[in-house]
Amino acid sequence: MMRIGVDLGGTKIELVALSDEGNELFRKRVTTPRDYRGTLAAVVDLVEEAETTLGEKGTVGVGIPGVISPYSGLVKNANSTWINGHPLNVHLGEMLQREVRVANDANCFAVSEAMDGAAAGKSVVFGVIIGTGCGAGVAINGKVHGGGNGIGGEWGHNPLPWMTKEEFNTTRCFCGNPDCIETFISGAGFVRDYNVALAASGTLRAAAKSGVDIMLLVDEADAIALAAFERYIDRLARSLAHVINMLDPDAIVLGGGMSNVAAIYPRLPALLAHYVLGSECHTPVLQNLYGCSSGVRGAAWLWEK
């Protein structure tokens, strides 16, 4: 059976078609129209082009930067705001004349890495995307765990655990709440924290624009950058220990730009054990296998074997 996955992002729509074994058969991306009808048409055109090229019809799964409300059936919480308030799965299903499954893009990431990625074979997988923002998803036996409210995995909008007095009430998230995990462990949060420390130090140096800038300074043993990374890795450990204490997943997989920081992986195990109940923790924290392709592959895997 051919599986088609669509990653519906704010700037691009990407489609991949996978064989039953997970091999890539077709891939294409287009610019996202910034209106609802245009977005529907772009997805349908991509699906039809893939099927015409391959001479075969497939199942269709779509990852979105939001969720379908289990109560209203409408998209909510999407930063691609023009799809909010619409029954996206219903309209795409009518246009493509088949059922279309829609899930949050972070959940798609978790499913991808659980099916044939870094956590293949693990029963309970917590997938974390730490890029400009911070998202997460849960896959159980290769399937999305969306939860009764459709927000399973949205741990990034809980307060940073074990917060120090220096951290308390220092950030405000786009969701409207203070001190969300996202504001500390996202790539943007890492940069913000470093730049605040740089300004306070009085050091005459240009502000960092990315985590890469800071990690280059870490490699040079720069004191401000080293201290910022120490704060970052400790906050990441606290945030993931919070998940382990509640969910105790078989594996945690990291994605997004910060997942490429190699220094994270040897440091996390001891820090996690410090915060996890009982001071024992052997939960593997893994770098993703498929990188930026994981979301679109996970959308295809919304139709399980």
From TrEMBL:
- Presence of keyword Cell cycle: no
Organism domain of life: Bacteria
Q: Which Gene3D superfamilies match?
A: 3.30.420.40
Q: Which residues form the signal peptide?
A: none
Keywords associated with the record: Carbohydrate metabolism
Task: Indicate the segments annotated as coiled coil, or none if absent.
Answer: none
| SUPFAM superfamilies xrefs | Actin-like ATPase domain
Name of the molecule in the record:
Fructokinase
Q: Which organism is it from?
A: Shewanella morhuae
